[in-house]
# Entry
Amino acid sequence: MDSTTRLQDDATVVARIFDHIDHQTTDVGETTWREPVENYRSPERFAAELEILRRYPVPFCPSAALREPGSYVARSAGGTPLIAVRGHDGQVRVFRNACRHRGTQLAAGAGCQKAFVCRYHGWTYGLDGRLRHVPHEHGFPGLDKDARGLVAVQSVETEGLVFVTQQSTPSLEAELDRLPRLIPPSCRLIRTNEGEVPANWKILVEGFLEGYHIRSTHQTTFYPVQFDNLNVVETFGRNRRIAFPYRAINKLRAAAPAKRSAEGKLTYVYHLFPNAMVATFPGRIFLILLEPLAIDCTRQIAYVLSDREDDDAEAQAALKRGGDFVDAGAAEDRDVACSIQRSVASGANEFFEFGLFEAAIGHFHRTLRAALGAQDECKRG
Ligand code: FES
Ligand SMILES: [Fe+2]
# Structure
């Protein structure tokens, strides 16, 4: 597996894929990885993982979900209810979703509004979080409205994503500076799918990170168009990118190497540590967020984005077919994840073993273990 921190260009990835097709090989890791099943069952481990989700910069939503001033997205991240909102100045800000009077949440889901008015007693906050109005204010003698605005968390908008971290870090922008191009600014939000999956969040992450299961799990969905167990795996920082080529990639052999674009010829899955995926499909980009609700339950939020302007019925129908196809494959992955979850307490396995083809999963678990270790050290220090 490639361990450089820079991702290769399409032409290089395609050349590596042709090499694998010609030799019936795939990228392999140096070692296998054994993850103790206890790590999917231990409440202490789960609590520590939630802390990681709050401490590291994580994608909260795509920029395209916050198109205009007043557009907001409210959901929990790492167990904390947050609201991201675009201000009149065009800047995205993220706040803890709690009224500064008695804590009522100020918004749910997504929408667009001029201000956040608390439904309990009507305290009103501007898009910049400032407390603007308190009904019957004389009931709060000495209230310092400037000090009672919504509580902000650090956020950065970059590469078409809004990142948040609940533990401020001075190096946030520099850290995110090293990201590859993820979601082009021209992308619009087509739809959002959300649902609860009765499985540990890490089991769901694992399902995105290898192509060894394409033939068995996705027999009638992905397998007819994709190769089984043929991937290019790269890592960048705490993150990774896995290329899943389509059989149609062979058409690129006729093109000059420098002119080989991966668009429509493979799916890239970018795993942004710890719990987000950006996956490219023809005409579509998916942002998938895995928010742990409990040790055995995860909210999966999928934002579907596109920069295609095709309005004619035929193009729309083709895109819909593509969307249905991805949904069918994703349902198969969720099904397997739920099946694994049901076996976690069976006592059958002391560890799950990830083989040489599943090295990206080993990299994920190693990164998570290191992050948890660093957290422990911080606490001891
Ligand atoms: S709790 Fe929000 S106004 Fe009272
Ligand atoms: Fe899958």
In short: The first strand starts at residue 33 and ends at 36. The mean pLDDT is 94.
